[in-house]
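Figure 2 data, in text form.
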Amino acid sequence: MRRIVLYYACGVFAAAQLGKFAALSPLIARELHLGLAAMAALTSLLEVCGALLGGVAGHWLPRLGLRRGLSLAVLSLAAGSAAAAFAQDVTTIALARLLESLGYLIVVVAAPVLIAHAAHGQRQAAAMALWSTFVPVGMAVGAWAYANAAGGVGWRTAQALSVAGGVLLWLGLRTLPAEPESSEDDEHRHPGRTGLLLWALVASFGAYAIAEVGLLALLPSLLTQGGMSLGAAGSWTAMAALANVPASAFGAWLLRRHGARSTTIAVAMGCSLLLSGLCFLGVMRDGGAASMQAPLAVMINLCSGVFPSLVFALLPLAAGSKERLSLASGRLTQFGASGALLGPPLMGAVVEQGGWSAAGGLSLLLSVAAVPMALLAWRRLHRGQ
């Protein structure tokens, strides 16, 4: 259990760097005279390495050693934050952010594999469902912690939270005993080929990520246009993100009660995507009332949040073997990060060209498109292919 908690904490720490930049952006922009476009680009840089190198990382990390890589990753996140604290221009901030992006990539590829190795049987599905919550939990923790710290000591000194967090996690990883279930042969064996099952699973996750991240990125703007205050819009956005947590707990309960290959899991994935897709039409529409759109945004995540918990739980089965799990995690990271990068600018462009209702329609289409891919993955898993 200690291993799982520590690996999960590494994921929350990595995701907190997303919330950190959201909280510190106004202060950084004011001091370094940066516009909104520049700040948006700097924020998205955390996902760049994942989008470009996720598959490569999944292939090479086992050769380095997953836990060794995770230790280096938390130090990379700490070093990037330290560099940002001394930055005097946008170039230095961008380079520091790229260093954080490299650490983030390694964490999100290595940590779920280590969690899967540390858990067994039904515990593995529940542990992977827990892992699926690391982004909303990390973003919420990061936004709260860094906003409060920066309010008292400024954005530069607030970066010390990341430095301290990275060092503490590195020390914690160093104290863990060797894992007997992960032999050197397992970690250095070639991962082999992945099949249609995995590709269908990660593609459905990528479509989900485009719609989900696009919504969360634009939700404050949508709600403030509807007359809501910025503070209230931010609170509703945080609640929407955190709604993934109880949804993931429900997904874990389904897995424990019915098993990953049960027809119930297929129905849950399909219903999760379709119900959230329909809710998009109520949230992202022209002339909507913010007082109605905000609760519906929370409902989207209560519905859609079941889907990623099931995807992560199915990932070890989709990989087919322990030595291929790292590659599978890298593929999932690549599709998820690509969706997170593409979602906000794509939805923003659609809103500018066709209005909020057009963006709602596109989100519904993405949700619907994810369903047959997810069901194809489950069907092949169910048949044992």
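Caption note: Residues 322-354 form the longest helix (33 residues).
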